Description:
With 97 residues, the protein is α/β, with parallel strands linked by helices. Helices cover 37% and strands 14% of the residues.
Amino acid sequence: MVKLGHRITIISSGGDQESEFLDLGVKVVNLNIKTKSFLSPKLIFSKSKIKRLLVENKVDVMHAQTRVMHVLASRLRWGTGIPVVTTSWSDCVVIPV
């Protein structure tokens, strides 16, 4: 998508593929957001940072891959109006409303 002129930003807690994304021209933002709990303080503290990044970068669409990030992205959608696309890697599908 970068080759087609799209700007892509990944927000994550880091990982093995980070250097590959950087080599492709993808902006990578590291935040301490890795958690399995919907009530984790990590999410509460990171929400405003992520919202600021979304607005500053004029993001058109968000993509979330984990159930906890689905919930966070849905909350951010309420505050920004940015649509959310999710990928579910389990039998449980979360559909933001």
